[in-house]
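Chapter review. Work through the record for Sodium:solute symporter family protein before attempting the end-of-chapter questions.
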Amino acid sequence: MSAAFSIYDLVVLGAYFGFMLLVGWVFRRAITNTSDYFRGGGSMLWWMAGSSAFMTQFSAWTFTGAAAKAYQDGGIILILYFANALGFLVSFLLTAAKFRQTRVITAVEAVRRRFGRANEQVITWLQIPMGIVYAGIWLNALGLFFAAVFGFEVNTTIIMTGVAVLFISLFGGAWAVSASDFIQVLVLMLITVVATIFTLIRLGGVGDLISGFPADSFLGNDFNYSGIIYLWMIAIIIKQVANTNNLLDSSRYLCARNTNEARKAALLATVLFFVGPVIWFIPPMAAAILIPDLAAMFPNLNKPNEVAYVAICLEVLPAGMMGMLASGMFAATMSSMDSGLNRNAGIFVRNFYFTVCRPEAKEKELMLAGKVVTIALGLMIILIAIGLNMLKGMSLFNIMLQFGTLVAMPLTIPLILAVFVRRSPDWAVWSSIIAGLLNSFLVKIFVVPENIESWFSLSESITNREGNDLVLIFGVFTNLIVCVGWFFIACRLSKHIPEKREEEIKAFFKDVDTPVGEDDSDVGKDDPKVQIRLISRVALGYGSFMLLMTLIPNPIGGRLAFAGCGIVLIIISELLKRSGKVKAEES
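Structure tokens for Sodium:solute symporter family protein:
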């Protein structure tokens, strides 16, 4: 175990797991069918749905792979997260309402309604392996984080944390994950604010960070052509907006109680993504100044830069606070991995097992099947995370971005068009995906530094950073052209859509155009006052626990940090309690 990770941190971490088990136990009563298990019954209020949407969009990868980018190249990493904020803003203005109004339990059911059963199966069998790989990347990042904290071997921590995530997701379903998300958003933001303040105090201030960061320019290091970096920024914005506004990722809004709650959830995620990254990436940038040799600090890690955030927090955080941060990393990764576990299990059960294998299955059988599939997916995710740990050549940062560009984008582009282009043949989707994947294969094969230097007659060589950036740039722009172009060519080539499908598509868009209100049949019957009361009590308990941690023998600054965090949580608990009373009076 790291010398800076104290017995108090272990107690905090143990208390967190107790808290998670309690949340799962409390919310198990909310699960009566597959709708409850896979999307919270379509009953969640905006602050719960929004915090869950926010948490599913990042993971421990933010504090490992992305933090390594901040450590190496500085503030340019903010572009990636501000692009997320822009994506959620587009959701608030345009797509969140449409997605909630699809009135389905899983996103792939919306694909079936819009593009037919063949595409339902195509998307099912593409999404499941894609979700497993994503979850493997996130679990690998979490294992790396805990390995740095405890000093254990990375594969050991991957197995331990993977089993813990699987256990909580298995027994709590979407309710437990989303309920804990709200509290963990609060805790994570508070702890990262504390980490940033303590880091700046140690460093001397923002001015010292800007003047002392070891970079050639604000674009970072290791580049010869600034134009490549600017194109990378544009490509990242396009990629992240697409990532947050396609039909497959509509699942983050299906849990919302109604249309207005879904839109407000997207707005909350927007605000959090504009604020959060500014706080998150100051510590790893400061680590580049204060701890320039991470390899000496973590000699057993293949890529020590990926634990820059851990390193600086071990240096500056008071005793007990590192345990809180580790809890937040676990929660963030659990929310992201839920897309590889709970959501994928829901897709398999609802869109393959139920529709193809056992259409006569009852809810009890589907629930059991969902849990069995969740276990199987969890084991596969653990194996993939271990496999990724054996890759020596690529960083977590580039693995994540290139997978999202070359594999996920061909899938997401036609599913963005799904809710805007109202007349298109079903085969436009699967054929666009095939065209995009073929294009991605060609990009990965041919977009290498030697070819780029030859094609454009470059005088200086392409650096390793620029080589990785060019794969993303070519992947985004060519997939956009190929997938969108082929989709509209398919629309032009198809003059006739079968009458039955015409009727199904009209019914789909009628729902998409009709707001979900409180009296809608798709709204869960759970009383929102119960949600508010339960979360209020959890916030009060967590806040009280943090106040208790002021008893840890820390310097006055550390005690004040715990007191401040605890008071904020207790105030939020009281605000929630009053909100519940207002709702009770309204009803």
